Every structure is written in structure tokens, then in C-alpha cells.
Amino acid sequence: MFGTFTSSDTAQATAKTADGFYGFEPGTAQAGNVAPIAGICYAMMIEDTSIFSTPDTTSALVTTMHKNDYAMITAHSPGWFTLDLNVASPSTDKLGYLEESKLGGFNGPCS
Description:
Blueprint: E1 15-16, E2 22-23, E3 42-44, E4 49-52, E5 61-65, E6 70-77, E7 80-89, E8 95-99, E9 105-107
Antiparallel strand pairs: 1-2, 3-6, 3-9, 4-5, 6-7, 7-8
């Protein structure tokens, strides 16, 4: 989907693959569905988002991810997601921690 959505806008998913990816109207470009490997749960970013070295906002900043960046989620604990930044856009050989409240959305089979 292309365009700007407000908090009151909605989109109707018309399909879900066995791998957990959602589909919309066939033949319509879907810019957010760019995750490279099916079967993996990704955190999607919708704005500049700080990724920390430990699950603590006072820890060192590993990177700042930007709108439409994504990273593989490897674990979840209250308030935090652990990200494998090696399976991410952009890719770096590190782990990082994303504040749960900063999650832009999920892509893939996330539960």
C-alpha cells in the first residue's frame, strides 16, 4: 500500500499465507512487505527508532533504525523486543533491544 494513513484509517487484509504474511488486493504494491526471509517475525519501523545495547534506555545506542527498516525479533520480555540486526535492513552483526512501545508493527508469523 502506498499513501499516508491516519490513526482512524483501516485496511482490509484479504489473505494470510501459511508463513504468516498478510496480503491485500492482488496486484497492488505493498511497500511494507519487504522482509527478505519468509517464516521469520520482523519488527517494522514507522519512524526513527533507537535500538539499545541492553533492555535499558540508558544503555549504549547500537543504531537508529528509520521508517521502513525492519529487524528479526528473536525474543520478547515485558517492555522489550530482542532484535537480530544481522537479519535486518540495514544489516549489522549485532543484537539490539527495541522498546515495545516503539514497535511500528509486525511482519511475518509473530505470536
